[in-house]
Amino acid sequence: MTELPKEQKEFWRWQEYHRVRNDRNWKNKDVITAGVDVGSVGSKAAIMIDGEMYAWAVTRTGSNSPDSAKKVMGMVLEDTDLKQSDIQYTVGTGYGRVNVPMANKAITEIACHAKGANYIWGPSVRTILDVGGQDIKAIHCDETGRVTAFLMNDKCAAGTGRGMEVFADLLQIPIEDIGKVSLSVDEDPPPVSCTCVAFAKTEAIGLLRKGWTKEKVLAAYTRAMAIRMANLVNRVGLEKDFVITGGQSKNIGIVSRIETILGVKTLPSPNWREGGLDPMIAGAAGAALLGKALYLKSKGS
Amino acid sequence: MAITAGIDMGIQTVKVVILKDGAVVGRAKASSGFEPAKAAEQAFAEALQISKSSKEEVTQILATGSGMETAPYANGNVSMMGADAKAGVFLFPSARTIVDIGAEEARAVKCDERGIMQDFVVNERCAAGAGTFIEAMARALEVKLEDMGPLSLKAERASPINASCVIFGESDVVSLIHRQESKPEIARAVFDAMADRISSMVHRLGINLDVVVVGGVAKDVGFVDSLKRKLGIKILVPEYPEYVGALGAALTAASRVKVGQQ
Known about the structure:
Chain A is an alpha/beta fold. Chain A has helices at residues 65-77, 109-121, 161-171, 178-182, 197-209, 214-236, 252-262, 282-298, and strands at residues 17-20, 32-38, 42-49, 52-60, 89-93, 105-106, 127-131, 136-141, 147-153, 242-245.
């Protein structure tokens, strides 16, 4: 986390929040499990009661994975009547999965995202594009949410959430608006030619100096990144239904461009701002679900 | 009594070399900035002044570097690999591999004893394999670029960082500083990561001794130390490594003049 002077706005900073679904009747409470997804940029936690999402939280990952896991677990328990000790089984996942102190087991985020996408969108999901902070993954799964194939790029910031944060800061546009802003141009300009985020930054500065508007530069960059993500999906093979998870699923500029490039609509995401499930918590949700299965197995039922 | 010049239009710095009868008589550089052609004119004037010659005396001027098309005064161009090979063998007759690492690009060039390029490998797609990487990491570490090398030499081990990407590397360095990792160890990790990438480029050509390292990054003792360790061979570094491209252009200009006179 870059420390910035107080007066400088942190355009990359996205919303951290937690939510409890108290609108439902959580009577039985036979199995309470948690999934903790410590990503490179965001940490997410989900609590499930009998395999149904009860509460979740999303926060920024700090410089230390165990602390980030504890922080997001504390957030998810807030406003619930549960305590840490009420949780019967916890699965850690994500980049920092081996450093989740409260976890009974660590499972790769690929398995968790497939399971979580199956939970959020249903059994028709076959292809998942997960755009995380520092990697992008294209995953294939069957109707039970089991992974059948995947491809991943974790060597390069191009197309990742971190790369988007860098651009939000460079163009001084709040990260939550970049999708909308990138779509405000009449027509997409040619994509930036540099894939490398460091070089693309230089190229963008050159374009701004040439008189391009911020919106146009952002559109050119977003388009280049969408092409990169779409290529990964094409390489793993696109099979319907298709969904996008991870932080960039909230970037409408990315989602709509990927849909255009691939010629396929994504299943619409639930509206997380109005209480719907957040596509960013797919990994944590999948972890909590896999936790339930592991817990029941350990009890021999 | 031929005077020739080479202009290397680099992404970050423009370099000019004036050559007289096979010896360098003037060299100057200027930051490319937003008007690289102007920067080249400045550097050219300065190099001329140092060489105590006038522009009219310069019979042939060749340009090289990624912005070679925009070079002022030039009669023609020389490829960057061709310039590297020519100057590398001129400086070290035993040189058969020239590794040139600039701000945004890195190359390994294989050449013969006449300084003629035979094969090459280039990285121009990723900032993690070029000088920009060190600059970005120096910024994240809040260390002056020129202090990175000496700092790294104090380390006994390298910190674990994600060095596959400049952007990820920056985030990692910030986390490592929060965790109070020592700056020398982080600096060492930066150079080791760069050396890893460069050495795999060199290996793709096959190790052809002697290996000469040139370009702005060759001035960095930290990088050269890491590369030596990584390759496990002796590495030659000329006195003015950042001028090698311009020197190659000036040398090529001189041989064209000679051919023209015959």
